[in-house]
Amino acid sequence: MQAFLSLALGDDELDDSEDGESKEEEPSEGNAVEDGGDSEEDGAVEGPRVLGDVSLAKRPERAYPRTLPELGTHFGVPHLPSLVAFFLYDQTHSEPLPDGSPTPPCPPLQHIKVYHSAAATFYAPSDISGIGGMRRERIRATPSWFNGPPRYDCVFAENDSTVEGFRGLHAARVKTFFSFECGGVEYPCALIQWYSPVADEPDDLTGLWVVEPDFDNDNQPFYGVIHLDSILRLAHLIPDFGDAVLPPDFLQSQSLDAFKTYYVNKYADHHAHEIAF
Question: What is the pTM of this model?
Answer without folding.
Answer: 0.83
